[in-house]
## 1
Amino acid sequence: MWNSATETDIAEVAAAIGDPSRTKVLRALGDGRALPASALAAEVGVSMSTISGHLARLREAKLLTVEHDGRHRYYRLASRDVGRALEELARIARPLPVRSLRESVRTQALMRARLCYDHLAGRLGVALLAGLIEREVLVNDAGSYRITEPGLDRLAAFGVDVEEFSRRRPAIRYCVDWGENRHHLAGALGAAIADRLFALEWLRRGRARRVVQLTEAGQAGLYETFGVPLDWADSPAEAT
């Protein structure tokens, strides 16, 4: 019996992403949240009629999904894999020219600490993974990470139930961070830790899309709990 599977249409996805305005839409949704078309139009700097065309194209390419809430519609990345693909593309793409102080501050903030769909990225994400290994919560076994027995206890004390979060998706994955060119923690564990940091109010969202910041309690808590050094960031500047 012949296998009916064919090669995937990379060109279609690449063409959908290739427009600068549609790329901005995907980046704006890169922290996993759903946004209305009006917010995306403002983010991209286009009219509502124009953003409607872009959103339709991204939905046709299966990069976005739409959620209905009464008369309102909200758009979200279609899957975590879309977020991972954007992160990987960012690694091989040329940097955009910085045209203003505002853009420079925002870029530095994104490189310092941001959400990559549902987990931490940037210098903070890299430092978190390094701390988890240093404290032997995780071990790197020939490029594959796994949770140790003492790590299970430490995570439980932190408020993360490993059995619960790993039921529907792989517990541990990683992304190669486009800014640091090192691994940051993804997968169910990465998402669960990020959720817990928000719940504890150790982490808060910045004013710019995807940007996050540690509170003072978060700085101290991550150092005490997972060994994340207090000087993980070069500066405390926030994106505006």
## 2
Amino acid sequence: MKSISNALMATLLASGATLLVAQPALAKKEEKPAAGAPALKLSNEVRGPAAQAQTALAAKDVATATPLVAAVEAAAKTDDEKYIAAALRLNVEAIRMDSGGTADALVAPLDALIANPRTPQADKARYVYQRGIIAANKKDNAGAAAFFEQARQLGNNDPNLPLQIVKLKMDGGDTAGGLAELTKMVDAQTAAGQKPSEDIYRYAIAKTNQKKMNAETMAWIRRYLAAYPTMKNWRDMVVFWGIQPQSVVTLDKQQKIDLYRLLRLGKSLADQYDYEIYAQWATDVGLPWESKTILTEGKAAGKVPADSANATGLLTAANRFISNEGSLSSLETKAKAAANGKLAAGTADAYLGSDQYAKAVELYRVALQKGGVDADTVNTRLGIALARSGDKEGAKAAFQAVKTPPRSDIAAWWIDFLDHPPVG
């Protein structure tokens, strides 16, 4: 767990400890304490130096405050007096942390305040939480876990507490427990009308991926994109899941092309590399129509430079192949007369790649009716063609017919895309 800095620790502590007992309540025995502060009964031996110490601490004059606090500690006999002694000592050590002091010096006054029956519960919950941070920074995971859980039971509502518990479990190897806590935290924030930060989702995605928990990784990706469906996030997550080297799942070029088709529809193809690798893979699997379409589109968008040698070579190859292949209409006629659906599926792919979606839909359905094809692949492509033609419900039905991973996962990506399309 990342250590909390001395300066931040001092600020956190001082925010709860500084002037815990209002100065007038110490200076004049008959005055009432400030709202929320305990009504303390102090002897004259404690009251005088305590009031002077508070004045010095308000000015961050540690040199003056230190002997006064020592005098209070020496004279303290009752719980009230020990409470003010520990509170003042905590203030001294918190201020010292700004000039190089260590968190170890905070342990004794924190423990004294936690144990003292005069400490208000809200303050006690805060002090227990800070003890958890100190323990976590010292790599005492068991101690930190106990303190954080105690802080939660005492009603600590620090927004960082749930995440501290999550990180502690994760770093301790309890990934399942950490994920359960994280889910609880995200669900609670969502129910309260709050939007969990993007970092929370990315943390869960990274941790589950490290443990090769593919189903959990995908689940957190889906939650992330539902909450933050930007074009950048869509591209980042699609590439992370199935396109980049060492992605969450291993896909072949045909399957990766179906993810690139999703990015294209979402206007999330980022740069020259995206357009050219997409076109290269389309060429590799025998889809020159799509290669040509993508490169032409990339050039028009200014993403593919006009002088790109790679793009020029791919376009030349695509045009040559298309010329040799003949018209798609002649292939369509042959496909409809064929004994099985293989030619129909291949011709539908060509229509899909050349943005002729109605023709693609027709021939994908012919392919499914004739058989002899991989139904999951054809249904995936049918869903894509329907999505591109604007038939959202028809597309979902086609995607839902895809049953076997990883194609069923690709279909799930498309369904999520239809429900939460990229924005911004």
## 3
Amino acid sequence: MSTRGAYAKGVAKREEILDAALAVVAEHGYRKASVREIADAAGLSPAGLLHYFGSKEELFVAILRARDDRDQQQYTAEDASAAFLAIMRHNASVPGLVQLYAQLAAEAGDPSHPAHAYFRERTDRIEAFTRAQVAADQEAGLLRADLDPAWVVRSLHALADGLQTAWMLDPSLDMAAEIEQFLVLLRPV
């Protein structure tokens, strides 16, 4: 077998593992999703699973990357606000992934943690895109022009993360509705 064929099979297997891992973590959460459970769902041994990811922490970072990729594909819209709200609504249906995100976000404050680079890159990418969208919305008269786009983006990011934490404690909280209320405050009077 050629190296290219082996590589393609490895990539396909990794995607298969991530599909299984997303389902396991979404259902059971970060703490209850063991490497053994994910390996079983993917039809592998725990050692076989870690062959593709190196460590449990790297597997969990890969799960978050896969979640981001899928959210981006599914919720891409011309209206960035509508896409953001749709993702927040979707998050309420995948509590385990919200738990994983919150847990790794806290742990990633340590620069030596495997998730540190992921969260830095993710934050930079999302905030750059969102700052550009806020500036365009201000130019179009959809958002108050007196607000600093960077402040708006940081505030939305902090609000979304904080709401996810609050929602984990009280799942009756409507995260998207709370964000919609904040967005109303940003509109011109």
## 4
Amino acid sequence: MTEKAFVRARRPEHKRQRREALLAAARELAVTSGVRNVSLGGVAAAVGLAKSNVARYFGTREEIYLEIATEEWRDWEAAVTERLRDAAGPRDVVAALAETLAERPLLCDMLGQMSTSLEHNVSVGSARVFKRAVLGVVARLGARVAEAHPGLTEAEGVELVAAGSVFAGALYPVSNPPAALAELYRQDPDIAAACPPFLPTLTRTLAAFAAGLPLMREGGYGGPSLGATHPL
């Protein structure tokens, strides 16, 4: 798509097309190169648009990725909801959460950079829209998790969903090392053995977390839950 075509777009539908093109370009670049390596200028160039003109649609690069992250969260919600329809207990619940996260590397990449990068340099309005969308996803999934996992309350279901996103964000960059570390692991298998595989590690961690939640409740441990305080 050329810059000339974009500059001449005046109608609301053309402006929507421009936003969608920017989002699509940012998504494709992130999938190819990783979110941290994508610049606002790179997104603009990918659609043939001057960098200065992007500000008419998104205030910053980070606001673009918050919108993409919102789409990814909702897509994850739909996938988990579908899986939980056939869940037959705790093992299936944990598998549904972990496996659908493993199937979404872009979401996991963004989760790993959310609090350190993507939530910076954004407007209050953009942050509010994003947070409310994510809190809604976590609340709805928490309720569905509790329905499928007889040992958990709804609040604990929310905690488990929130924990899945937190653990996935922490594990993803470790399990997908940069080029220098990947080469190191190739050369030194003993060091590579310390690199945790994403899905098995996430599954085991979530299983342990889920098993511990009722014990914490029965033991009288109070305080705010992970889901209530920090869903990302």
